[in-house]
Design goal:
The chain is mainly beta. It has two helices and 42 strands. It comes from Phaeocystidibacter marisrubri.
């Protein structure tokens, strides 16, 4: 009896010990996407006549986001219906298919296994309604015309070579594809022939270009698909006609005016009173203007007649005033110390400055007044200029009433000490740009905040030296200035004008304190 009991305990301990020691781990993670076992009709069939396709996988799958991931090239008018049963995906085509046409169905990342969400992204189902399966490929990349960054989710479309110029605004393409996260596209199974190629950000998913809100790109020659061409397409926003959209009261005396594009010269006349004044603040290349007015009553409505001088277009701007003057007038640094000897030293205000008295502004070095000059550097800022030396410590003193804003308010007394950096705390940057062409060009050197430190025009070569600049990272771009207006211009498809070409220095130049960097950039 006792022996039997001891034997049972021993067996229990042995089994328990074995169970603890042999606990299995999870094994290697499944990273294999579902594989296609077969399809009916078979993939790459010809003389296709049905409307149902079955695709069988080697494991149970699920379908996520079919409507947004599925692509048919050529496009279909009606959506393809799908149904999933166990390991089989059934597609039902409700369109009438074109004769003698090769169709390519792509599924994006919609098809995944049910355990680890591994997506089958490589599979494409191809069939032809004729006796021949077309095999030409048109491939390439779409980039932003100005930034040159890759453009994801852009529709690249092919149209018949003899189609009218505006076909991309009226009809779906013969073939199309979408760019991936790197801007690459591949339109496969294209019939041999000559095609127009267009790229567009199809925001409303109607397979057509519907206006300037959708970025556009094009190749200005016909593509011969038999050569399997590979192209790069610059994408740009088309120029829009001038239009005044609306105005919004933003703050004390401040109105934001919204336009379809930078409006250029305007004439603005107050309609509800004749005694008010205004100041316009124009952000560089911006389609929003800041309009400052100095007379209103809270709860009242102001009206202005806006005349666009280039087109003669007139609009009425009406704004309801709701805020009282709760903003105290004060001056702040427009540029932050410490300064370099080459820095522009600015004071700024939240409201427009209309008057200043230089006799009430002083620059003190030790105990001595130091000569300087002062002038406007913008609607709301003053620039103070003087000769600065490395390591100096100075003090600005602004007496009460030295500066007046457009509302008749004056500043309180203001004093601020600041230091000029030593030369070993600053950097020097030299750049030599070499070109084998004499095409007119613009070079811009800018930092990570897109602040432009240097801009100039040149033709074949240019040597640039920037002294006493703050340690920072610098970038550079060159604009091929076709119309020689000193800035970048977008394209116009209907004038067959591509956007001006922009190239970027392929690296960022890091400037550190007490460094002197030389960079040679060879361009075409």
């Amino acid at each position: 009896m006792i022996r039997g009991l001891i034997r049972l305990i021993a067996i229990f301990l042995f089994v328990t010990g074995c169970a603890v020691q042999s606990t299995p781990d999870g094994g290697a993670k499944d990273e294999t996407p579902p594989a296609i076992v077969g399809s009916y009709p078979a993939n790459r069939s010809t003389n296709f006549t049905g409307n149902t396709i079955e695709i069988e996988f080697d494991e149970y799958v699920k379908v996520d986001g079919f409507s947004s991931q599925f692509i048919s090239s050529p496009p279909l008018k009606y959506k393809v219906e799908h149904k999933l049963r166990k390991k089989t995906l059934t597609l039902t085509i409700t369109d009438t298919l074109r004769e003698n046409t090769t169709y390519t169905f792509s599924f994006g990342n919609a098809i995944k296994d049910i355990t680890e969400n591994n997506a089958q992204t490589e599979f494409k189902y191809v069939f032809s309604t004729g006796a021949i399966l077309d095999s030409q490929i048109v491939a390439g990349q779409v980039i932003d015309a100005y930034s040159t960054l890759d453009q994801k989710g852009v529709m690249v479309a092919l149209y018949e070579g003899d189609a009218e110029d505006s076909v991309f605004m009226k009809a779906p393409p013969l073939y199309y594809g979408l760019t991936d996260e790197h801007g690459h596209f591949s339109i496969e199974n294209v019939a041999p022939g000559a095609y127009r190629l267009m790229a567009m950000k199809d925001l409303d998913f109607n397979y057509q270009w519907t206006g300037a809100a959708e970025a556009l790109g094009y190749i200005d020659t016909l593509l011969q698909s038999s050569y399997n061409p590979v192209v790069t397409i610059p994408l740009f926003k088309a120029e829009t006609p001038y239009k005044f959209y609306r105005a919004k009261y933003a703050d004390f005396g401040k109105i934001e005016m919204y336009f379809s594009k930078p409006p250029g010269a305007l004439q603005i006349e107050r309609l509800d009173t004749v005694t008010s004044e205004y100041v316009i603040e124009r952000p560089e290349n911006g389609d929003t203007l800041i309009f400052w007015t100095n007379i209103w009553k809270s709860g009242s409505t102001g009206e202005w007649l806006i005349t666009h001088l280039e087109t003669g277009t007139q609009d009425t701007m009406s704004v309801r005033f709701t805020d009282k003057d709760t903003t105290k007038f004060r001056l702040d640094w427009g540029t932050k110390p410490p300064f370099s000897p080459t820095d522009s030293i600015c004071f700024s205000a939240k409201t427009p400055i209309v008057q200043f008295d230089p006799s009430k502004i002083h620059l003190i070095l030790d105990t001595l007044h130091t000569p300087f000059s002062i002038d406007y550097s913008g609607v709301r800022s003053l620039a103070l200029s003087t000769r600065l030396e490395y390591g100096q410590t100075l003090k600005w003193i602004v007496d009460s009433g030295a500066v007046t804003d457009m509302f008749g308010r004056v500043n309180d007394s203001f004093a601020q000490g600041f230091k000029v950096l030593n030369d070993n705390e600053l950097s020097i940057f030299h750049m030599s740009v070499r070109s084998d062409s004499t095409f007119p060009k613009v070079i811009e050197i800018f930092n990570n905040d897109e602040a432009i430190l240097y801009r100039n025009t040149f033709t074949d070569d240019i040597n640039i030296s920037l002294y006493d600049i703050h340690p920072q990272e610098l970038k550079a771009r060159v604009i091929y200035d076709v119309n020689e207006n000193g800035r970048w211009d977008t394209g116009n498809y209907f004038e067959n004008r591509q956007p001006e070409k922009v190239i970027y220095l392929t690296k960022t130049v890091e400037l550190r304190a007490n460094w002197e960097i030389e960079e040679v950039w060879n361009i075409r």
